[in-house]
């Protein structure tokens, strides 16, 4: 009878308790055939699982070779039951097969939907055992419309048992068990059978097909005459494979009929605990990989062991944690477990005990503990002879298409960004640089100075770049996706606003619209909490240029608009108080920034922003604690913008330069007022007269004192400007129309001569000449 | 002179927790069949129920004393059940004292063994003092000794409470070390000691905003399990707390006028939460946080003063104008930095919200 020949082991993906029970059960059963829930596409690379250099966590990657973006990952940790089963099968030399619906069908089905943009994401094969990779595959979570039975069967059982969620219940009942308990599989199958019987019939075609394919594989194995077949599958599927309840073969064939097929390839890829954690968007992920690893290890007293590790992690970060702390934490965890009527403290209790005793209630150190001990930072490794990663394939294809071969000799390229091929080459090189694969170097390519649409690259391939490329393949399967994911990560890690704007410039060059979007959002967020006004001011000019001129690549720069608006608002609010109590150096820095921001705002010429800017400059002129250099500059800004009446300017000048003001302060003020604007001084008579009057009013002694300071300002003027000023001063006295023709309103304006140009002007403008 | 006019008994302004909730404690004790640690009036499970509220098997309803995470209360109670002392930490207005009073009331039926920590708290307040008249008359003896609340808690096996532990000078704080680790209080003058009996423990509260006032020595810190009481987790939770407290305070102060509209409370609570968390409730925009704590308690007082203004000078209905000035006062503690934060908030957040116009204008006027 077939039911005695088939043994079903319903497991929880990545559950160490399941893995332990499974190993014991397999040991006892000594199966002659192993069927494991996994992609049959990957059977050819399966043998590598027992390779000496193979070190979990690793993932099986199944992808469409022509289009690596369509791919599915099957991650395994050392404590994953499937991993234990694969290793057991291979080590014992037992036929080991995967029995899930092959990805050659699943990925083919995906291709049909490719018209819809939401469906073409790599993870949208969407089943909970496969992981998502790359930033674009956002939605792997089962849709809310799905019935709860299918979405979270364990949650229902847990609720019935009075637990707040399924993870915790399963953890408590199964993962944390240490005794010998092979009967657990029977119990799990019975529970799932009861649950599935009560649940409404499944209508998800993909699920039906998967289970049909599993049964098909099982039937084939039975037909081959194996006597002890061990089936390892997710607990939910266990009842569907029950040999006593198998539907007729014809039923399954009809479900599987008409499936499309696409060519797939499989490869191993190193994986991380971080990506195994459910927080990373992996549907079947577990909350706490590192904790499970500890449960999987043979440590007897898990609580003591874990809390000791917490203490060690804390000590390594220079935080106090003594053995006495650990003892107290263990005691608290145990009494918490007792209060909650649990036999042993679980992760929850240990976590709370560690927080309360070891971290003095502070969440900060606990974040460290979470990262290191609950999620863990383990990175897997794969043997060197494992098949090539999709990212490498993608690069090879791009190199071929763009005629940019990888050679070990140094080559120089002059890329004309107006040509599509050169633009694509430039993008590729920029993207590789972002991925830390420095194939090309744009700084060392030399300069031809032929305009902004030229880019000069020096390109040289080195063997270590291949390694870097494989490292980068954890970010995605294509250069574009990987670069996007990399930038997004860098964006999360960036410490300062300047780093982000820098990154934005690179991302714009590399044409990564998605990354640009999240960078802009990050800049927005960062800018809103940045209290360092100079930092905001330094970030503005680059943003303004991007906004105003875009770049040759026609990137949509309007996104930047919102950021700019926020940054300008904050600068305008914060600048007046940032100008207080500065020494000369800091004031000098802020002065430069003020000029740059003013120029940037002029480029943008947005009424609202300019108004806010002038308001803030005005409030600077009115405050007393502000460095005179900046006050001078603010008056100048207002004057240039025509926001200051002539008599007001006179009043301010007289006030700031009045004899009671310290000479040094007055000189700093005039420096701020006049620095590098000699021409304006010559041509603006109101300005000239006011300054002139002040200098003339100085006593001989005071003039000597202030002379070096004045010289500091006037030395920055051009020689010609200084000569003109000198000549004017020589003529002496407050001048009304010093240069004769300088002032438009002055007499001597020759209307007849001016009228002579009018006909030509009219012609140029295409209008009738005035009478 | 007729004596028909009854002399009114003075009404106690505020009752102790154990007398105010005596019925609940009695009901809990009646139904509680779980194991009680020595000298405890209730089992740890029942203490948690007393704090978090619930309905008992005999139908008695327990009012929630603490609105928030049950797990925190479980840690606190489990700590008291071991022989470790409990340190409740939190920004002002997170119900530290409230929790400590109710814990002491539920565990030992007595919340009065209290030491208020101040910069002037002396060793006698924690150890013992002397009745000098007796001392001079009879010489040193146990009769002349005046036990501190902590010493009484030790001998009677009850919970002692120390409020604002970090305000107590460090040398005085450290007298707790022997009490907490050796569970004894030496009395060298009489060549004897007071040993703690089972059931004794200490609940201390401290304000983690005042860090550095008198930072606990690591030796003392090690004797405490720390539970940090966070500000309320959701707007609804906080609105409930504010509404309840405002209603009960309003009754106590006999304020005329209507109960404040829920929308107004919600707006105030939202402003406090958003500024405190440094981001808007929808999580879309980050904000700067002001230097003040902006606790729930402050939100309560803002609403209260608004209600008083509306009742005495307005038409009895709470309007944005009534809360604007106290709101601004509560937020701007540092005249330069906080003013920027508040202005930014008004311009970038409040201005954009449709039904916030009146509040926005009222607040702009006060700036």
Question: Characteristics of this structure?
Answer:
heterodimer; A: 771 residues; alpha/beta; 5 domains; four-stranded parallel β-sheet; three-stranded antiparallel β-sheet; 10 strands; elongated; B: 367 residues; Rossmann fold; 2 domains; five-stranded parallel β-sheet; 11 strands; 46% helix; globular
Q: Would you mind describing this structure in some detail?
A:
The complex is a heterodimer of chains A (771) and B (367). Chain A has 771 residues and is of the alpha/beta class. Chain A folds into 5 domains: 2-280, no CATH class; 300-375, no CATH class; 390-481, no CATH class; 495-644, no CATH class; 665-738, no CATH class. Helix content of chain A is 55%, strand content 7%. Chain A contains 35 helices and 10 strands. In chain A, the strands form 3 sheets. Chain A has a 4-stranded parallel β-sheet with strand order 1-6-2-5, with helices on both faces. Chain A is elongated. With 367 residues, chain B is α/β, with parallel strands linked by helices. Chain B folds into 2 domains: 72-228, Rossmann fold, CATH 3.40.50.300; 235-366. In chain B, 46% of the residues lie in helices and 12% in strands. A 5-stranded parallel β-sheet of chain B has the order 4-7-10-3-11. Chain B has a two-stranded antiparallel ribbon with strand order 1-2. In chain B, a hairpin with a 4-residue loop joins β8 and β9. In chain B, α12 packs across α13, α12 crosses α14 (296-313) and α13 (262-277) packs antiparallel against α14 (296-313). The longest helix of chain B is centred in the middle third of the chain and has 18 residues, at 235-252. The interface between A and B is medium-sized, with 31 and 34 residues.
Structural class of chain A: alpha/beta
Poorly predicted tracts of residues of chain A: 112-129, 131-147, 737-746
Averaged pLDDT of chain B, please? Answer: 85
CA(first)-CA(last) distance of chain A:
114 Å
Give the CATH level 1 class of the largest domain in chain B: Alpha Beta
- The biggest beta sheet of chain A, please? 4 strands, parallel
Poorly predicted runs of chain B: none
Envelope shape of chain B? globular
CATH level-3 fold name of the largest domain in chain B: Rossmann fold
The span between the termini of chain B is 60 Å
N-to-C SSE string of chain B, H for helix and E for strand: HHHEEHEHEHEHEHEHHEEEHEHHHHHH
Q: How confident overall, as mean pLDDT of chain A?
A: 76
Radius of gyration of chain B: 24 Å
Share of residues in strands of chain A: 5-15%
Please, how many helices of chain B? 17
| Greatest chain-chain contact | A-B, 31 and 34 residues
Give the % helix of chain A: 55-70%
Helix % of chain B is: 40-55%
**Rg of Cα set of chain A:** 37 Å
Protein name (chain B): AAA domain (Dynein-related subfamily)
GO molecular function (chain B): ATP binding; ATP hydrolysis activity
InterPro entries (chain B): ATPase_dyneun-rel_AAA (IPR011704), CbbQ/NirQ/NorQ/GpvN (IPR050764), P-loop_NTPase (IPR027417)
Domain ATPase dynein-related AAA (chain B): 86-224
